[in-house]
């Protein structure tokens, strides 16, 4: 018995004395602490940064761009066949149809369904989206990837602009700005709410530099060249006007497009009487009248000299809204309505050219 006791103490010493040594113990605590801090840092900063896309500073948003596309008149036989998916028009380099699509809002499946229905062919068709192609719906990133891959043309909507502002906030960049629009750039934009669970902020966090590059090159206004002057009836017209595309609307009292106010162009729905020289996005505001109604009246007063037809989106509440000089194409895809395309083309009719357009729609049920 006496012999065993020291032996036990010896074993005890051998196994444990290194942990009882104060220096060793404190170094272990130190190492553990450092490791803990490293783990915290990794989870809090390093790992998330691996998933934060690189940021890309903004270029100025252009106020007005020209479509820069030559449209070739087609023969009436071609036009009968062009909505038949098995038929493909010959390509001569120039384009044959201009296709305008209203607010898609990330509804990628109805968008693709609509392209199939109009038999979209990127060799012979020029596709232009009228803004608000992202946010709200389920597939904003997929939309952007498609538009980039297929080089689809765009104008900017208010929601692209809001997402750009959220992107600037997330990456700590200077906010987006409009070229030559000093007044609009002075009004520092308040991102709506500014909370970090704002869906437009969450979308902005996911955007890659090439997504921002795409959105950034969408102008506020696009001039389209000659478009038909009638109420989208299929028989067409020899009369044409200059076409303009804008997301929200235009002030009739500012004839120079470069001098329009960018944010108004993105957000307006109505003008306020009695002078209609002030815009609002609230159609129920006191003395507010739809900007397109005023625009249409003012163009009629011009007696066919220098009239302009405006194609726009942004007004799902008023829905598809076809006037002679103003054509609203937001038919409420995001709220279970339709997605609308305006297809515009020219036909050879004896020696004259006939200007034609047609609305094609699909139901949004994704
Ligand atoms: C048409 O789309 C393809 C991708 O599907 C692209 O490579 C090509 O450049 C586009 N052509 C035109 C004229 O935009
Ligand atoms: C609108 O026009 C009226 C009459 O010309 C003018 O008195 C008023 O200041 C204008 N309002 C704005 C906001 O420009
Ligand atoms: C258009 O015609 C009407 C009636 O013929 C005339 O009163 C008006 O002044 C004309 N407007 C322009 C801009 O020429």
From TrEMBL:
Keywords: Membrane, Transmembrane, Transmembrane helix. CDD domains: MPP_PPP_family (cd00144). One of its GO terms (biological process) is polyphosphate catabolic process. The chain crosses the membrane at residues 26-47. This is Calcineurin-like phosphoesterase domain-containing protein. InterPro entries: Ap4A_hydrolase, Calcineurin-like_PHP, Metallo-depent_PP-like, Ser/Thr-sp_prot-phosphatase. It comes from Meyerozyma guilliermondii (strain ATCC 6260 / CBS 566 / DSM 6381 / JCM 1539 / NBRC 10279 / NRRL Y-324) (Yeast). Residues 97-216 form the Calcineurin-like phosphoesterase domain. GO terms for cellular component: cytoplasm. Pfam families: Metallophos. GO terms for molecular function: endopolyphosphatase activity; phosphatase activity.
């Amino acid at each position: 018995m006496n012999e065993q006791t020291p032996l036990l103490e010896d074993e005890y010493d051998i196994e444990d004395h290194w942990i009882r040594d104060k220096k060793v113990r404190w170094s272990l605590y130190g190492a553990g602490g450092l490791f803990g801090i490293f783990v915290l840092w990794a989870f809090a900063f390093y790992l998330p940064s691996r998933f934060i896309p690189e940021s890309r500073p903004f270029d100025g948003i252009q106020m007005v761009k020209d479509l820069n596309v030559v449209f070739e008149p087609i023969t009436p036989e071609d036009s009968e066949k062009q909505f038949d998916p098995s038929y493909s028009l010959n390509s001569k380099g120039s384009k044959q149809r201009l296709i305008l699509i209203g607010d898609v809002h990330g509804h990628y499946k109805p968008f693709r369904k609509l392209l199939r229905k109009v038999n979209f062919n990127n060799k012979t068709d020029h596709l232009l989206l009228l803004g608000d192609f992202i946010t709200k719906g389920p597939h904003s990133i997929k939309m952007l990837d498609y538009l980039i891959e297929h080089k689809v043309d765009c104008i900017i909507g208010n929601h692209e602009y809001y997402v750009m502002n959220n992107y600037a906030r997330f990456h700590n960049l200077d906010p987006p700005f409009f070229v030559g629009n000093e007044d609009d750039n002075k009004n520092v934009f308040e991102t709506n709410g500014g909370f970090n669970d704002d869906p437009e902020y969450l979308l902005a966090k996911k955007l890659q530099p090439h997504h921002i590059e795409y959105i950034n090159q969408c102008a506020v206004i696009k001039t389209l060249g000659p478009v038909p002057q009638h109420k989208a009836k299929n028989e067409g017209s020899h009369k044409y006007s200059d076409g303009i595309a804008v997301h929200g609307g235009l002030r009739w009292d500012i004839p120079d497009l470069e001098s329009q106010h960018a944010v108004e162009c993105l957000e307006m729905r109505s003008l306020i009487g009695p002078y209609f020289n002030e815009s609002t996005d609230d159609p129920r505001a006191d003395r507010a009248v739809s900007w397109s109604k005023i625009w249409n009246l003012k163009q009629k007063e011009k007696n066919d000299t220098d009239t302009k037809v405006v194609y726009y989106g942004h007004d799902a509440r008023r829905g598809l809204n076809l006037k002679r000089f103003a054509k609203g194409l937001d038919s409420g895809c995001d709220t279970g309505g339709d997605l609308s395309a305006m297809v515009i083309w020219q036909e050879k009719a004896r020696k004259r050219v006939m200007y034609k357009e047609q609305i094609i729609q699909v139901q949004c049920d994704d």
